[in-house]
Amino acid sequence: HVADAYRTDLMTITRFVLNEQSKHPESRGDFTILLSHIVLGCKFVCSAVNKAGLAKLIGLAGETNVQGEEQKKLDVLSNEVFVKALVSSGRTCILVSEEDEEATFVEPSKRGKYCVVFDPLDGSSNIDCGVSIGTIFGIYMIKDEGEPTIEDVLQPGKNMVAAGYCMYGSSCTLVLSAGRGVNGFTLDPSLGEFILTHPDIKIPNKGKIYSVNEGNAKNWDSPTAKYVEKCKFPKDGSSPKSLRYIGSMVADVHRTLLYGGIFLYPADKKSPNGKLRVLYEVFPMSFLMEQAGGQAFTGKQRALDLVPKKIHERSPIFLGSYDDVEDIKALYAAEE
Ligand code: P6P
């Protein structure tokens, strides 16, 4: 009976990645080891996010530790956990975190061949109201074996070897691509293992949902304004799209990936480069969308072709179902 077989044949994320690795006989397992440390970080953050929410809400002793120190802000704590896990993996050489102004260059004795860019806890302002938040990460190989420089992380997103996010919501879901499709894993807390629950995710070619902060409408440029107008008042007799906007990128992107539709964080007069960060928000989510059959556009070009000049650079982003992104690309092309 399939269900029985499934229950006993547990496909954990580690086993899944080892299977993938076996397709690269030359691989020495470095990626598997790196990923296992990222997974450890996600498990820790999942537990801390759940506890912190409760501690904060009912003032448990946990809110200040036994030394009476004010509990670290969760995003600072999450950042420390990921930096320590990534350095201790011995597989990384440069880390870029949303929380750290400067890149971290790993000491030579612990250096590996990967650069990891990450937002340890994106959307953390939503914790107090229980809205899902997440960790977003992208992985590059260093350009060459020489002394690592910041140029090793200022690579276009298309050079990423892997990207993913972990969403801390009603369940803890890790979505990952290593360049051969997208797979989703859900944490089984009783096992402490991420189990394959969403094999080979493909985003629908067209969706019924658009996701944007309408509160910025007065500052939008014309192609974005025209596109959103088209979503609300379609001229071709089709039904209007629904608006879903959670305000936490991981949650909005996860829904878009599974249900289809389009997520937009456009440029506006206040922020000409939009709000979302290229390296550890735009690139990983664009990588996943392309791997799932969707696409990602900056208003000027394919998002993954962008070459960042600064590690915390921002970019407008339109990502999701292939046909929906095509529609907004046509409106930007018409304005050129
Ligand atoms: P706004 C959260 O603060 C975040 O960085 C993303 O997770 C989210 O998509 C975006 O900002 C929301 O921004 O301006 O709509 O509140």
What is the tally of beta strands?
Answer: 13
Overall, the morphology is globular
**Proportion of beta-strand residues:** 15-25%
* Strand/helix succession: HHHHEEEEEEEEEHEHEHEEH
Low-confidence stretches: 57-62
SS-based class? alpha+beta
Return Rg in Å. 20 Å
Mean pLDDT: 91
* Major sheet details: 8 strands, mixed
| Hetero compounds | 6-O-phosphono-alpha-D-fructofuranose
Helix content: 25-40%
Strands side by side in the biggest sheet: 2-1-3-4-5-6-7-8
Work out the helix count. 8
- Intertermini distance: 58 Å
Summarize the structure in words:
With 336 residues, the chain is α+β, with helices and mostly antiparallel strands. Helices cover 33% and strands 21% of the residues. The protein contains eight helices and 13 strands. It has helices spanning 2-8, 13-21, 30-58, 74-88, 222-232, 249-259, 278-291, 322-335, and strands at residues 92-97, 104-105, 111-122, 133-141, 162-168, 172-177, 183-188, 193-198, 209-211, 242-243, 262-265, 295-297, 317-320. The strands form two sheets. It has an eight-stranded mixed β-sheet with strand order 2-1-3-4-5-6-7-8, with helices on both faces. It has a five-stranded mixed β-sheet with strand order 10-9-11-13-12, with helices on both faces. Helix 3 packs antiparallel against helix 4 (74-88) and helix 5 crosses helix 8 (322-335). The chain is globular and about 60 Å long. The relative contact order is 0.13. The protein binds 6-O-phosphono-alpha-D-fructofuranose (P6P). Residues 122-123, 125, 213, 247-249, 252, 275 line the site of 6-O-phosphono-alpha-D-fructofuranose.
